[in-house]
Amino acid sequence: MNVLRTVSLAAATSAVLAVSAPAFAQQPASASCAPASEQQIAALFDRWNESLRTLDPDKVLANYAGDGVLLPTVSNQPRATPAEIRDYFVKFLKGAPQGKIDHRIIRIGCNVAQDVGTYTFKFKDGKSVHARYTYVYEWQNGQWLIAHHHSSAMPEVVAAASAP
Length: 164
Known about the structure:
The chain is an alpha+beta fold. It is about 35% helix and about 35% strand. The longest helix has 19 residues, at about 1-20. Mean pLDDT is about 85; it is low at about 1-25.
């Protein structure tokens, strides 16, 4: 009886993971998936945020996959190469930014995870920016790296500022 229950639980868990994982995260059953918990994925933002504290663009860049893409908050230019991502952080780090997660949703698939939500950045001049974010992490060469990072200022704030 316990064996049957265990098999049913495993089958149900697999079915739930297949449904909740994004289509690009679903891999064949034979694929080797790196284990990951919500806490581990949440800690990846902390790792990235700590690299901002160093004010070293190369340390920030080390969080990104070689083919990672950054759609940054304070630039209109998509960054699709390590050199472009680094260039963005050379400028962004001048403000000594520090982020704090306000709300998040984490989804975990096979060797891919998403951390999506809102955060607030504070800068050394006392200003702050509220923004939406998406981090898509991929398991590459034994570590989680940012494959896609999108950040945009909250639209209500922008719309309110431009209202007559």
